[in-house]
Amino acid sequence: MNVAIVGTGFIASVHAKVIKGLGHNLELVIGRTEEGAGRFAKQWKGKKYGRDLEALNSDRIDVVHICTPPALHFLAVKKSIEYGKHVLCEKPLCLDEEEALELVKLSKDKDIH
Questions:
Q1: Which residues contact 48 (CB under 8 A, 6 or more apart)?
Q2: Digit-coded pLDDT (tens) for 61-89
Q3: What per-residue confidence (pLDDT) applies to 90?
Q4: pTM of the entire structure?
Q5: What are the pLDDT digits (tens) for 38-47?
Q6: Are 112 and 84 in contact (CB under 8 A)?
Q7: DSSP letters of the chain?
Q8: Which of 17, 33, 62, 96 is deepest in the core (most CB within 10 A)?
């Protein structure tokens, strides 16, 4: 499986360790800074890295792990679903009911479960 990780902090490292331990590929790392994403990608043998969520729109990515602070989850989850990716999100998918309803509708429209 080809995986993208959004976030480069402690919990992202936990996810990367499990991803690599299961024999999956870390295809992409998205971080707050290019430098931080690059360091994380180098440490975990990620193939690509950057700052732009648009990079998630790749046929090479099967699933996206969202490992950012909760206030940043909604946009990353929404973009991932828009691009037809399955999502594994650390903590809440979003912070309010309106965002939750939007994600439910979008996931149904994109047939992402």
A1: 27, 28, 29, 41, 55
A2: 999 999 999 999 999 999 999 999 999 99
A3: 87
A4: 0.96
A5: 999 999 999 9
A6: yes
A7: -EEEEE--SHHHHHHHHHHHHTT-EEEEEE-SSHHHHHHHHHHHT-SEEES-GGGG--TT-SEEEE-S-GGGHHHHHHHHHHTT-EEEESS-S-SSHHHHHHHHHHHHHTT--
A8: 62
